[in-house]
Amino acid sequence: MDAGRTAGDVTPSAGTPAGPSGPMVEGLIGGVFGGVEVEARELGLRGGHGWVYRHVSLHAAPGTLTVVTGQAGSGRTSLLLTLAGRMKPTEGTLTVGGLATPHRIRQIAALGLFTEVNPFDDALTVREHLQERLRPHGFLWRRRHPDAGRSALAHAGLAPDELPHGDRTPTRELTRDQAVRLGVTLALLDQPGLLLVDDADTGIPAGRRRELWDILRRLADQGLTVVAACTDAEEATGAATTLLPLPVPAPPPPPSPPVAADDTGVARGDEAEEGERR
Fold first, then answer.
1. Do the beta carbons of residue 114 and residue 77 sit within 8 Å?
2. What residues contact 204, with CB distance under 8 A and at least 6 apart?
3. pTM of the prediction?
């Protein structure tokens, strides 16, 4: 599929994301997820050592899977955090579900497992992580949706009976593949319109990587907007709606050498020119 084209070219955009009792809960229980439209134009993020990424544009409609690819240093993680409203771009424009400020975007975008941003508490079990994520919804919501946790696990392809101690397995005992799926599970419990998954191919065996891409594709097929990042796009190609390769930004130019000055403090043109030639 061409990197510049998405299914969003023919898919209508979504409106306001669903609330706790809307399509997202229906999606968790078996219906259709309420995805949102993502529109980025010429995004760039500059850090202390130069540009992290620059000139990034993308359009992701509900029901699409956008796969961001690139080697270490290409800014994959930072781009996903920007799309989630966790980082503010230096240049360009971004709207997610019609919202343009990072604070508002954070309300409708959810992160899977980002190792350096939202690591698991290794002392907690899978069940305890689910309970912690569900607690803010309140008692009445949890009572109306008693199967939300179990359904989110199923959507993420994480079967508790395949874990060493079922849902009482501490997260430190999870494989990388299981950890990524738990991250997706917890993100789904936030009822997002946009799901972001980082390092989807890191530390996961080939067969399990293919299964993970299939899981993300199914979530997109049910209406969710999904953006995932990886190093090698080959296995993701069949599942992706759009492939977005990121080049490694060029390093900043070295500082200019000092120019000799005469007694008045004015640089002598002939010496400066000779220095440039050297």
1. yes
2. 176, 177, 180, 212
3. 0.79
